[in-house]
Amino acid sequence: MSPRSPRIAAIGGFMQYFEPIMGPDSRRDRTAHLDHTIAGLNAEAEIHNLGLLVDETDEARLVEAVRQLAPDVLLIVPTMATPPGPMLRVIGAAPDAPVIIACSHGLESISAEYAMAELCRHSANVGASMVESLMRRRGREPVTLVGFLSDDEFHARLLMAVRAAATARRLKGLRIARLGLPMSGYDHVGLDAQEAEASDMTLVDIPLEDWAERVAGVTAQQIDQLFERLPTIMPQGTEWQRTPDHDRAAGLAIALQKLSDEQNVDCGSLTCRGPFGVGLGQGAIGCLATTMMTSAGTPFSATGDLVTAVAMFIGRSLGGATLYCELDAIDRQRDAF
């Protein structure tokens, strides 16, 4: 299936008690702080900026919004000192979502004009400590990041934290397709239904009869269309001479894509050296199929290696490049495999 962007609910902490000290523009100013903190996440996540938690009306609004949204990740931005009780009640509306606390600082130097108004506005450290302390006392551990809004490095760390949290959330309920058991003796790579369930994952076992029917149903027109599209996704300069072997490999790729979409799987493995691959009537090695699936965002391994398939899913979700390939020999001179 096509991976969707993680759904992030961002909420800003605020303390109404200090509003008379901070001045009439304090909500606007602290909202701008929240906006600045999360601005760099829009390109890679579905951000829902739910605004500031100021009073009981906001608490009720935010509890309902979080419950309806069912976010993958909760991003809490204490824009100043933040009473943790109301914030934890909002956080409780998404009991399974990982929580990130972004303790972001806009003030970088303290001048002679620094007074109580500035102290209140720039008390994110206090707010982050308050929220994290109560969360840990209640048995829910957040990830807290501290940095300056002017630093690109802080925004990069926040982005990676969101990726990691969203990936961790997606592992719960991960759907893993298995097309064939590992080769005999490959006991280190297999995964059975009980092991998957122990990690809150679902093993989707594909019967050979179903797979064989899907591969046999691929048409010559579909294969031609794949080869028309192939140059647009291959590295520039790649050359090949189309052969019947390529056509059979393309048939596996087309069938695997359709199966993955219909079964709504996140990753998987195709054991092509056996009845699910070369043993089929129009069978082939599965490297083209698994590589195309991986490049499209649904990582597939070979040889029934579901452990590595999950690792590939994690790597891909964190923004890395993934390729299933054995690294056999080491070239010491070039420091390469």
Key structural traits:
337 residues, four-stranded parallel β-sheet, elongated, L-fucose Isomerase, Chain A, domain 2, intramolecular oxidoreductase activity, interconverting aldoses and ketoses, 2 domains, alpha/beta, Rossmann fold, carbohydrate metabolism
Give the secondary structure arrangement, pairings included.
Blueprint: E1 7-13, H1 19-22, H2 26-38, E2 46-53, H3 56-69, E3 73-78, H4 84-91, E4 99-105, H5 116-121, H6 124-137, E5 143-148, H7 152-171, E6 175-179, H8 193-198, E7 202-205, H9 208-216, H10 220-233, H11 244-263, E8 267-270, H12 287-295, E9 300-302, H13 306-317
GO molecular function, one term: intramolecular oxidoreductase activity, interconverting aldoses and ketoses
InterPro entries: Fucose_isomerase_N/cen_sf
Keywords: Carbohydrate metabolism, Isomerase
How is this structure best summarized?
The chain is an alpha/beta fold and 337 residues long.
Protein model, in words:
- The protein is an alpha/beta fold.
- The protein folds into 2 domains: 7-171, 3-Layer(aba) Sandwich (Rossmann fold); 175-317, 3-Layer(aba) Sandwich (L-fucose Isomerase, Chain A, domain 2), CATH 3.40.275.
- It is 44% helix and 15% strand.
- It contains 13 helices and 9 strands.
- It has helices spanning 19-22, 26-38, 56-69, 84-91, 116-121, 124-137, 152-171, 193-198, 208-216, 220-233, 244-263, 287-295, 306-317, and strands at residues 7-13, 46-53, 73-78, 99-105, 143-148, 175-179, 202-205, 267-270, 300-302.
- The strands form 2 sheets. The protein has a 5-stranded parallel β-sheet, with helices on both faces.
- α4 (84-91) links the parallel β3 (73-78) and β4 (99-105).
- The radius of gyration is 25 Å and the shape is elongated.
- The relative contact order is 0.11.
